[in-house]
């Protein structure tokens, strides 16, 4: 079996420059009956071709490197066809046609130019270029200048006009190149999304739902929300999907007191049910009451301090106390307090 494979490898066409291998003598003895067998046969033949390329690579002289052995591939021997056709030549611009007709030849200009205003060498174009408008503090007036005209603003407007003229010429050249089908490579992607032929794209048809949304926004854009606007024939009133705020009546009446009482009771019941253990603390209330009573007793002359300890109950949750004061209470959660004193 190994000798047969060696003979087959000798008939392989191997191009190491393209890492390509081909077996021109391979033919299926018979068409596989199913797609699974066809895929299996193709994988077997592909594995043999890859193994042949790997064997040819290891036969080349290698150089040891930190990442492993490196092999220099030879020049490719098979010329692969192009995926796309050759680009068409770009048509000449108007200036190139005129220069060729008059025999004008372009000369390469230096990038640096001596600036007489600053006495230094500067770039011809770009940032900090020669004869920059920002470096000119004074402009000499001419006899033909109109009085009251700003010379700096005039220079800026002239420069803007030159830039716009150059842009128009550039777009014209692109239009001519698009007609021939020879757009530059850096414009081909932009040309697919942005038309440069000068014609606007066909307007998209607006759907019925979009028109209804726009009409609804325009109808409710007034101060009354479209309530007092005239309706068009066939126009349906817009539904208000938002919630309205409810306010108390401005003028006092029979029902105003009950509404305020209901609103107050609602707020209090909500607070009591949610934070009842934080709102009322029986222990704290009894302690505050005893402290105030003790201060009041000390301020009165002729009273002894022996009775101060008798005023404070040992347990505020007990039902009765020594002095006849009755207390009724529960735990802190949901606690209620009722009591009497002499």
Please characterize this protein's 3D structure:
Strand 5 (112-115) and strand 6 (120-123) form a beta hairpin. The chain has helices at residues 2-10, 35-58, 94-102, 151-180, 185-193, 208-219, 256-274, 276-279, 282-299, 308-311, and strands at 13-15, 20-22, 62-65, 68-71, 112-115, 120-123, 327-328, 338-339. The chain is built from 10 helices and 8 strands. The strands form 4 sheets. The protein has a two-stranded antiparallel ribbon with strand order 1-2. It has a two-stranded antiparallel ribbon with strand order 3-4. The protein has a two-stranded antiparallel ribbon with strand order 5-6. It has 342 residues and is mainly alpha-helical. The longest helix has 30 residues, at 151-180. The chain is extended and about 125 Å long. Residues 152-167, 227-238 have a biased composition (Basic and acidic residues).
Largest sheet: 2 strands, antiparallel
N-to-C CA distance: 119 Å
Unreliable residue runs = 318-325
Query: By helix and strand content, what is the structural category?
Result: mainly alpha
Q: What form results from the Cα inertia axes?
A: extended
Number of beta-strand segments: 8
Main sheet strand line-up? 1-2
* Average pLDDT reading: 75
Radius of gyration: 49 Å
Strand content: 5-15%
Helical run tally: 10
User: What is the chain-wise order of helices and strands?
Assistant: HEEHEEHEEHHHHHHHEE
Helix-residue proportion: 40-55%
Region (Disordered): 147-167, 222-262, 287-342
Function: Involved in ribosomal large subunit assembly.
Subcellular location: Nucleus
Family: Belongs to the RRS1 family.
